[in-house]
Design a protein that fits this description.
It is built from no helices and 11 strands. With 111 residues, it is mostly beta strands. The radius of gyration is 13 Å and the shape is globular.
């Protein structure tokens, strides 16, 4: 069992930045993929970015060039630096590790 706890969400104006963090605890598999997904009101949950244990990253086209995912394997954490935020980035952001999910953190971008 793995527990994931997100932090760093909040309210920001368009063009601003936020950094999300997620800490994993429990029986963490040595090989894993960590990532971020998001769900906006009335929309399906969608991939934002993922990063493998060896640092290979993958981004949704909508966030490429604006968001950066990173991880610290020693601390079992993953972060998402979000720059040039847009109102359409407003959503609940979820941290994932393999099949485990965090509770989510709200990100609201005002225009």
């Amino acid at each position: 069992q793995v527990q994931l706890v997100e932090s760093g969400g909040g309210l920001v104006q368009a063009g601003g930045s936020l950094r999300l963090s997620c800490a994993a605890s429990g029986r963490i598999p040595s090989i894993n993929v960590m990532g971020w997904y998001r769900q906006a009101p009335g929309k399906q949950r969608e991939l934002v970015a993922t990063i493998t244990s060896v640092g290979r990253t993958n981004y949704a086209d909508s966030v490429k060039g604006r968001f950066t995912i990173s991880r610290d394997n020693a601390k079992n954490t993953v972060s998402l630096q979000m720059n040039s935020l847009k109102p359409e980035d407003t959503a609940v952001y979820y941290c994932t590790m393999n099949t485990w999910w965090g509770q989510g953190t709200q990100v609201t971008v005002s225009s």
